[in-house]
Structures are given as C-alpha cells and as structure tokens.
Amino acid sequence: MKKILALICIFLAGCAATSVPPQYTLDQKKGKGLVIMSLRQVNAPGLAFPPLVVNYRKIGDLIDIDNGLFADRGGIPIHGNESIRLHAFELDPGEYEFHKVWAGAPGVGTTFSSIKPFAARFKVESGRAVYAGMLEFRVWSSSNYSVHVIDRQDRDLGVFAENWRAVPRDRIDVKLFADR
Question: Pick from 57, 59, 53, 64: which is nearest to 13 by CA?
Fold first, then answer.
C-alpha cells in the first residue's frame, strides 16, 4: 500500500507545472509559449487550512489531463510574501482553463475540493508570453470559498522582469483570465 501511495505522489508531483529557469528565452522554433500569472491564497482569520492546488487543462483535448499549480510552492514569492507566488511556465499553444481547486494533507487525502463551478481561461501562443492575471482564493471554510481574478500586471510583470531578464516586455501579451 505504501508503494502505491508513493507512486501516486510521484505522479501528482510530475503533473505540477514548474517555473522556467531565470535564463529562459522565448523561441518560436520550440513551438511553446509562456504563461505568467500569480496565485494567492487567503485563509479566514484563525483558519488553519492546507495550501490549495489549482488544476488546469487544455480545452479540446480528447484526454483530460489535469496539471496543477501549488499555492505554497513553485514559482517565486512576490516581495518575500510566501502567500503570493508568481508562476511562469511553458505550455504548448492552445486554449486552457483553470477549473478546479483542491487541498489535502499528506496521509489524509483530499480535505477540500471545489464544488462551485469556475473556469478561468487563457490562451497560449508559440514564441510569446501571456500575462493572465492573479488568481486569488479566499477560503472561509471547507465549503465556503471565493475565486477572484485580479489585474496585478504592474507588480507581477515588474517581479517577472527582475527574475526572467531574457524575456522582453514587448513579447508579453496581457490577457486576463476570461470566465467561461
């Protein structure tokens, strides 16, 4: 049983989006695009709630494979604030959507999963970067949360430029997440 759980953990970790290295450059020939976005989790005062994982998927794929971004790791903290993380990750061209939020603790399994439908869509183009906005999750209890899309491009793109200097600003499109 422990081996099965270990394999599941390895698989889930492999499905997590990882930020590109600081020396990353946009290259049309690679056939990939870059997504820049921030993720913030705000828990109600006194609520000890596990870090959220936000799942995204490519729209129109025959096989629906979820990939995730973690609220507490990956990306970089913005101005030292661990509750806000900037993510920059590479994807194939196409339309995608964030569509599910969940939280869990090691050995416990899923303690929370989104029950309210939500979708924040974004489009990736080859050789270009897209700033999609900040997804903010406010958690009031295990059954009560809200999702907000916030335009923080001034802050986020400033932090991005400090950390990924090889991506020129004129190659970054700003297209905030669109609700379906």
Answer: 53
